[in-house]
Amino acid sequence: MYENAFNSIERALRAEDGIANELDYVEQTSWVLFLKYLHDLESERRDRAELEGRDHAPIIDGQYRWDRWAAPRKDGEFDHNAALTGDDLIRFVDRELFPYLGRYHDRATGPDTIEYKIGEVFTELRNKFRSGYILRDVLEIIDGLHFNTQADKHELSALYETRIRRMGNAGRNGGEYYTPRPLIRAMIRVVDPKIGETIYDGAVGSAGFLCEAYDYMRRPGISATDYDTLQRHTFHGQEKKSLAYVIGIMNMVLHGIEAPNIVHTNSLNENVMDIQEKDRHDIVLANPPFGGGERREVQQNFPIKSGETAYLFLQHFIRKLRAGGRAAVVIKNTFLSNTDNASVALRRELLTACNLHTVLDCPQGTFQGAGVKTVVLFFDKGEPTRRIWYYQLDPGRSLGKTNPLNDDDMAEFVDLQRGGVTGPKSWIVEVADLDAQTMDLSVKNPNAPEDAPLRDPEAIIADMLARDAETAQILEDIRGML
């Protein structure tokens, strides 16, 4: 049913002039879904308060409630006469609904509250619907979706993830929001987070790392105390871009986290030397943006200055980890070998401050639409690196849009990593054997077969001429038979 609903929404949006691409599709679907989610959450909280004999203060009240403007009802049935549509609906959304919800910032007691999320979403986004009739169709479709059970949320989250993946495949900007889920799941299995630990992603994007970590930790039969810990005290994220922030919030909500602890801010604006123990976390899981280039004043927040955004994030992550904390971070593979001062200094700091115990080398095509190769760095904070276990991921096929990475591709890596097993695709490098000047960590598989020597050009030409002569003789023989 939900698959059909999402397909119907997509068909409606194709006719909307204000929605031009996959990014717009996810953005505009997100704010409508978010309001329907809040309505269902409101109903659940109201019922819970009645059972416990408590007063209930509604999150959204008056004419701004979902069942007043989006899906009004009379005697339990949808009231089409009371439902705004056309220009009236667009005027209400643009001039009244969004400004009203944007002011929820003023009533929020902190960034971990649902009021803060509402204020952020409706301050940063704008309604792109131009046809109130198309918006009315979308509202009525989404009104038929429900967030009441875990099964409902699971199905909706799977469909939403599909749309995020398609958005990521649609182009460069969309690709910033999507990390392949099989890669994320393998990273989480290696890091193995436990309930009671906090998990942080300072470049949260669509919150794929936090959502997958939640699914990993929410085991069957979990106690009420542990469930509350997962809901309120485990997952933390920060995101600079407005659209990514909204998508991340919605993705976590659909996975079952009521008020995600995601803050809309640029993590790199924080001076890493000012990070205190209370700001640190047990685990970092992240895929920070590559390239970019932050302003000079932002670079002043870091001891190692660099125009490469990922290098600043890596310094940020090291300092956001508690002593003994664990991290898995995706980064361009050129970080391992670049000889500029910033790259060498950062490798030296990583090897000195942390135990870089594993490097996963990912093949071309792991990230759809990305023209760079990546590696995953696995490290623990608090002791220097002595040896590094490398694994060269080779799924045995070319990865692409129609042939993406899957969980089976990652299984061997996860199994071998536990024991640091060496083999055709894995090996160990001793830090003592590294070049002391460059600290070069390049992926150089000592078990790979040597490339065959190149043939002499004269021999190649002679071989081609011989084949041409043979072909000519065959054709002459065929002509003689005619």
UniProtKB/TrEMBL annotation:
Q: What is its EC number?
A: 2.1.1.72
Per UniProt, residues of the N6 adenine-specific DNA methyltransferase N-terminal domain are 12-74
Catalytic activities = a 2'-deoxyadenosine in DNA + S-adenosyl-L-methionine = an N(6)-methyl-2'-deoxyadenosine in DNA + S-adenosyl-L-homocysteine + H(+)
Does the UniProt entry include the keyword Methyltransferase? yes
Residues in domain DNA methylase adenine-specific?
Answer: 152-449
The protein's superkingdom reads Bacteria
Checking InterPro entries in the record gives: D12N6_MeTrfase_N, DNA_Adenine_Mtase, DNA_methylase_A-5, DNA_methylase_N6_adenine_CS, SAM-dependent_MTases_sf, T1MK-like_N_sf
**A GO molecular-function annotation:** site-specific DNA-methyltransferase (adenine-specific) activity
Q: EC class of this enzyme?
A: transferase
- What protein does this entry describe? site-specific DNA-methyltransferase (adenine-specific)
**Which source organism?**
Rhodovulum steppense
